[in-house]
Amino acid sequence: MKQVAVIDGQGGKLGQLIIEHIRDAGLPCEITAVGTNSIATTGMIRAGADAGATGENPVMVVCRRADVIIGPIGILTADSLLGEITPQMAVAVGQSEAVKLLLPVNLCRNLVVGTQNMSLSRLMSEMVEMLRPLCES
Hints:
This protein has helices at about 15-25, 40-45, 55-65, 80-85, 85-95, 120-135; strands at about 1-10, 30-35, 50-55, 70, 100-105. It has a five-stranded parallel sheet with strand order 3-2-1-4-5, sandwiched between helices. Helix 3 (about 55-65) runs parallel beside helix 5. Strand 2, helix 2 (about 40-45) and strand 3 (about 50-55) form a beta-alpha-beta unit. The N and C termini lie close together (about 10 Å). By secondary structure, the protein is of the alpha/beta class.
């Protein structure tokens, strides 16, 4: 079974949506939620994650083990999410061999050229469709 890591911070709302949509799609994967704070982690666990942890070291550990990492594009940028992403977290995500499904949430001064300004609902649908073949292989 594929190991999917969902990384989020702040209140964890995006991570919760990601997990809910993966569960609703019935994808065969094990989801580990990693929050940059306990509020984010708790919300993602409530949304249906199989396991959860909080903080810098769990991000580093999960990035070594995951087959797929999902989160806002800011998880690749040190000091994003209002400083919740440490330089070590950004490096761990960036250097991970996992496939990364990054949602182009245009916050934290990360603007992705060539993307459309989509609703969260549309982003979730596209994320699930990109994850489906990764989990089913």
